[in-house]
Amino acid sequence: MSNKTLSIVNIVISLVLIVAVVFLFLNKPKANTADSSSEIQDSSANAKVDLMNPNDSIAVNFSDLKVVYINTDTLWNQYEFVTNTLKNLEREQTRLQSAYESKMMKLEKDYTEYMEKGKANMLTLKQQQEMETSLEKQQLEIKQLEDEVTNKLIVRKQELNQQINDTILAFLNRYRVINGYDVIFQHSYLSGILTATPQIDITNDVVGKLNSEYRNFKK
Predict the structure, then answer these.
(1) Three-class SS of residue 67?
(2) C-beta of residue 181 within 8 angstroms of C-beta of residue 68
(3) Do 50 and 183 meet the contact criterion of CB atoms below 8 Å apart?
(4) Among 12, 36, 59, which residue terminates a domain?
(5) pTM higher than the cut 0.90
């Protein structure tokens, strides 16, 4: 058989195979696209249903909430416990500051004396060294006292603020339960609540009752 004849046979066989593959592909059973589509739609619908029906335990009807607010700026200015506490803190600060200033005045006096005697050649070498040592010791004590005063005032202020806040919060927890409020908001200058109806402002009532409790406690 010639080469030309073999080439023709190979071409014919290739064509037959291609036709067979195309035939099988066209007659392959198709997936039920309608069923798949309906399943997708059903699952989407179920998802929508789930989203549209949240858990009843976390659903809140805000129209039923009893909400009030307190102007904390006014509360802080008119609560007698705060006023008296700040006065006590000022007195303590004055006392500590006075002790610090007394040491500073003594240091300045001793330093002036040291300079005057030194210029007048009234000090021996030993006396000069002793005065310099004393001045250095006083400087160190003043620096330590300055740090001590600063730290004492910071700690004392934090303690008093914590005491005031604890007192107010303890009262508000009782006040909220007694009056049946759900939420008590804090309102101050440029706070989260920028404006609200005056009808739900309970500041004056809270301040009055807080001051009454404080006076009874002092007695």
Answers:
(1) strand
(2) yes
(3) no
(4) 59
(5) no
Cβ neighbors of 11 (< 8 A, separation 6 or more) are: none
**CATH number, domain containing residue 79:** 3.30.910.20
Give the span between the Cα atoms of 165 and 162, in whole angstroms: 5
What is the dihedral angle through the alpha carbons of 154, 160, 164, 167, rounded to the nearest 10 degrees? Answer: 130
* Spatial CA neighbour of 206 closest among 183, 184, 182, 180: 184
Residues written for the chain = 219
The amino acid sitting at 31 is A
Which domain covers residue 30, as residue numbers? 3-59
> What are the tens digits of pLDDT across the range 158-173?
999 999 999 999 999 9
3-class secondary structure for 1-39? CCHHHHHHHHHHHHHHHHHHHHHHHHCCCCCCHHHHHHH
